[in-house]
Structures are given as C-alpha cells and as structure tokens.
Amino acid sequence: MPTLLYLHGFNSSPQSIKARQMQEHLQQKRPDIRLICPQLAATPAAAWAQIAAICDDIKEPFGVAGSSLGGFLATRVAEQFGVRAVVINPAVHPHVLLQDYLGEQVNPYTDERYLLTPTHMQELADLRVEAPTCMERIWLLQQQGDEVLDYREALEYYRFARVCIQKGGDHSFVGFSHYCAQIIRFLQL
Description:
- This protein is of the alpha/beta class.
- It has a single domain, classed as Rossmann fold, CATH 3.40.50.1820.
- 37% of the residues lie in helices and 20% in strands.
- Strands 2-1-3-4-7-8 form a six-stranded parallel sheet, sandwiched between helices. The protein has a two-stranded antiparallel sheet with strand order 5-6.
- The longest helix has 14 residues, at 44-57.
- 38% of the residues are buried.
- The model has no long low-confidence stretch (mean pLDDT 97).
C-alpha cells in the first residue's frame, strides 16, 4: 500500500485543518493510500529523529507533504530518502524565523509546554538542506498573502522545483482541499 507522510508545522498537530482535509480526501477518494501523520516532537532534532525512523520503517513507495516547518522537514526527507515532496508555504530559514519565539511555548493543539532555546535554532540550521539536489521531485505550493513567511524566500529557494504561486491567501494556504488530488498525483501514489 503506498503511503503519504504528512508533516505538520510548528506548534501544530495531526488535527490541523490541512492534515484533516488530506485525511478526509484519502478516506473518501483514495482509501488505497495509507496516511502517516505523526504528532511531531516539539524540538527539531527530536522531530527529525522521529521522521527518519518513520521513513526507515516504510517499506512501500511513499511521498511526503509538509506545511510551514513541516515543508522544511519534507525537503530534507526528499533529499535524504529520494522521494517526492509537496511543500506548502514552507519555512525556508526557520532557524532565523523562530528566533522571535525563543522561550516558553505551548502547543495549542496538545497543550504541551516546552522551552525553545538557541540550541534548537542551531538544530534547525543543521537540518537545512543548503544545496538541494532533489528539486525535480518537489512541488512548492505558495500563497503570496502568507502573513508569517516571506513568500519570496520560498520562490528563490525552490526556483528549480515545480511551483504554484497564488496571489492572496494566507499562511494556512486558503483552498488547500482543492489540491489534495493533485498532490497525490504529483507524489505518484
């Protein structure tokens, strides 16, 4: 059974709107595809260890999709595991972006409390794929109205990937459910 690995963003969960929309799409239209959408660890190195272990355990063909920080991590999955990835309003420089969030955090979905530290920013910097060789296997879904991330950073970083850029929208990627079938086709699942 082919598998879709879906990676949520910072302080999010498998209960996020996009994750639920993808789950509903697969249940209704593609029950032949298994969805793995883990609750990622709050800190970067722990989250990556979790993701790498999941990828190592998947024996069938798989693809990955991720939003925001999940898109950043999906890029690393594509690079390291040789699979296709769809990145939705991805974080390109999370080690810079999340500097403003250092200190105590509470995940609004899980109520988990944790401390975000400079060490975690270094972990993010260490996870970044500096010179990706996998761009032909990546599809960037980006909305210009993203109020959290500068969409131009993603356009520059993913310039050799397949790109869908939309005016308007926001960080949640308005209208995501309309892309579920296309995502599955791109991932060749």
